[in-house]
Amino acid sequence: MGTNARTAEKPGSDDVERLSGGPVEARQAWFTIGDLAREFDVTLRTLRFYEDKGLLNPRREGLNRIYNRRDRARLKLVLMGKRVGFSLTEIKEVLDLYDLKDNQLTQLRVALKKFNEQIGVLEAQKRDCELALDELKTTVGQVADMIKMREKTRN
C-alpha cells in the first residue's frame, strides 16, 4: 500500500525523481532552455550542443525548446558524467539504454560496470596526483634550501 499507482505501473519511475533532485510533484513539469541553463550553470550553447549530440530531446513550441523532468534528469546525469571523466559518447551509450523494455536492467548494469571502471581510473589518477604532489613538495623544499644557502654565502 506504500507505493503510488504511478510507481506500481512503471518500475523505475522513482528514478527520475531521485536523479532530478526530489519529489516530482513538488516541482514544475516543464522547463525552458533558460531555466535549465540557470539551474545547472551552463550556457544555452551547451544545452543546444547536448541536443545536437542526442543527449537531450526537448519538444518544440515554435522556436522554443521545452524540456520535461526526464530531460532535466538526463542533463543532471550528463553533467555528473562529464565531471567524473566520462566522454559524451560513453554517457550517451548509458542514457540510450533507458528505452529498452527490460525495466532498465541493462542500463543499470552497464552504468554500474562503467561507474566501477571509472572509479578505478579516478583512483589511479588520484594516486598519480598524490605522487606528483609529494615529488613537487620535496622539490620545493630543496629549492628553498638552495636559496637559503646562496643567500648566506652572498651576505
TrEMBL record:
<feature type="region of interest" description="Disordered">
    <location>
        <begin position="1"/>
        <end position="21"/>
    </location>
</feature>
<dbReference type="InterPro" id="IPR000551">
    <property type="entry name" value="MerR-type_HTH_dom"/>
</dbReference>
<keyword id="KW-0175">Coiled coil</keyword>
<feature type="domain" description="HTH merR-type">
    <location>
        <begin position="30"/>
        <end position="97"/>
    </location>
</feature>
<feature type="compositionally biased region" description="Basic and acidic residues">
    <location>
        <begin position="7"/>
        <end position="18"/>
    </location>
</feature>
<dbReference type="InterPro" id="IPR009061">
    <property type="entry name" value="DNA-bd_dom_put_sf"/>
</dbReference>
<feature type="coiled-coil region">
    <location>
        <begin position="105"/>
        <end position="132"/>
    </location>
</feature>
<protein>
    <submittedName>
        <fullName>MerR family DNA-binding transcriptional regulator</fullName>
    </submittedName>
</protein>
<dbReference type="Pfam" id="PF13411">
    <property type="entry name" value="MerR_1"/>
</dbReference>
<dbReference type="InterPro" id="IPR047057">
    <property type="entry name" value="MerR_fam"/>
</dbReference>
<dbReference type="GO" id="GO:0003677">
    <property type="term" value="F:DNA binding"/>
</dbReference>
<keyword id="KW-0238">DNA-binding</keyword>
<dbReference type="GO" id="GO:0003700">
    <property type="term" value="F:DNA-binding transcription factor activity"/>
</dbReference>
